[in-house]
Specification:
This protein folds into 3 domains: 4-64 and 150-240, Gyrase A, domain 2 (2-Layer Sandwich); 66-147, Aminomethyltransferase beta-barrel domains (Alpha-Beta Plaits, 2-Layer Sandwich), CATH 3.30.70.1400; 291-380, Aminomethyltransferase beta-barrel domains (Elongation Factor Tu (Ef-tu), domain 3), CATH 2.40.30. Strand 17 (311-315) and strand 18 (318-329) form a beta hairpin. The longest helix has 12 residues, at 214-225. It is built from 9 helices and 21 strands. The protein is of the alpha+beta class.
């Protein structure tokens, strides 16, 4: 059995408050995300997927660092960062947003949480938005304070997660709505709990507000979850690709704009508020995009794991795009993928060639998400 020190990690990359607990519970491998270690291996990733969709898993996602924005101009400042209209965002609400630069490129696709009238957290994907926000603030003329609080999220995801939350918090937690948050305590441990998660399943995120209690929180949740089949786990590439969920740096980056991803609903060019990238996004909308994200079914033997490089997509011998995320879905019994291709080829039913590690193979363009397209499972 591995011990925490066996990994030989240095000090320049941070460990989460749950690090020792995850190793104790069987974490065998880690990757780095937001300058922090994240468990990515608890054994068989296919078993992790079935644990998620049949019962529940607990994931250390402390790498979702929070950027905290407070001060009299907090709401106005947060609106500057995103093209999504936040004017009707209530205290206690969460929203999936894009953060864009002056060219309309996506810098991050986080969850925004509104804790109070002038108190926001940006729960990050993998990029340095703390530095971006602090830089934007310098010449903004707005009265805001921006920093990183002592906050470390866990994800409790899967169909049994509601029952486990009931076991932990009682009846009061059961009316928490999809994409809303609540401030709670668990045995004196201070938390924010939200009905969110990176799984497309019913799920919750528990934001620990005291890093010294990471071990206690992990063990408390695992103990409450045991009767329901809760297992330690990691965010599932299989499930998130089934759900068409983005992985930043893979499916989107600084050179990707919202319209290429079909995220028109996250851009409001008609609102009065000025936000970074507004002029560029208006120009992109008027001109149309040259690339589009698509779904693919790849026709070959089951892939052994997610792709670790971008795979070239060809049509009639010409490169037309790349596969950004691919995996075998044991539930769908198909190789599924998210890809970015020239807009002329983004037609449902089109047949293309994908150059995977073993050589060229045929693939068909399909709609995405691949499973539960209306997100009825997570929102139920």
């Amino acid at each position: 059995m591995m011990k925490a020190d066996d990994f030989g990690f240095g000090t320049q990359i941070r460990k989460s408050p749950y690090f020792d607990a995850t190793v104790r519970w069987g974490a065998q491998g880690f990757s780095v995300y937001n300058h922090m270690y994240i468990p990515r291996d608890f054994g068989d990733p296919e078993q992790n997927f079935w644990n998620l969709v049949n019962t529940a898993i607990l994931c250390d996602v402390a790498v979702e660092r929070q950027v905290e924005i407070t001060g009299p101009d907090a709401a106005k400042f947060v609106q500057m960062l995103t093209p999504r209209d936040l004017s009707k965002m209530a205290v206690g609400q969460c929203k999936y947003i894009l953060i864009t630069n002056a060219a309309g490129g996506i810098l991050n696709d986080p969850i925004l949480l509104r804790l109070a009238e002038n108190h926001f957290w940006i729960s990050l994907a993998d990029s340095d938005i703390l530095l971006w926000a602090q830089g934007v603030a310098i010449h903004s003329g707005l009265d805001v304070t921006i920093g990183e609080p002592d906050v470390s999220p866990l994800q409790l995801q899967g169909p049994k997660s509601g029952e486990i939350m009931h076991a932990l918090f009682g009846d009061s937690i059961m009316d928490l709505k999809y994409y809303w948050l609540r401030e709670v305590e668990l045995d004196g441990i201070p938390l924010i709990v939200s009905r969110t998660g990176w799984s497309s399943e019913l799920g919750y995120e528990l934001y620990l507000r005291d890093g010294t209690q990471g071990d206690a929180l992990w063990e408390r949740i695992m103990a409450a979850g045991m009767p329901f089949g809760l297992k330690p786990g990691h965010t599932s590439s299989i499930r998130r690709i089934e759900g068409g969920m983005l992985s930043y740096h893979a499916d989107a980056d600084i050179n990707t704009n919202p319209y290429e991803l079909g995220f028109d609903r996250l851009v409001n060019l008609d609102m009065e508020a000025e936000f970074i990238g507004k002029a560029a996004l208006r120009r992109i909308q008027e001109q149309g995009v040259s690339r589009k994200q698509i779904g693919l079914i790849i026709d070959c033997d089951p892939l052994k794991g997610p792709n670790t490089t971008f795979w070239t997509i060809n049509k009639d011998g010409v490169a037309i795009g790349k596969v950004t995320s691919a995996v075998y879905s044991p539930r769908l019994e198909q190789n599924i993928a998210l890809a970015m291709v020239d807009a002329d080829y983004a037609n449902i039913g089109a047949v293309v060639e994908v150059v995977i590690a073993s050589g060229p193979t045929q693939a068909t363009v399909v709609d995405r998400p691949f499973y539960d397209p209306k997100k009825q499972i997570a929102a139920a």
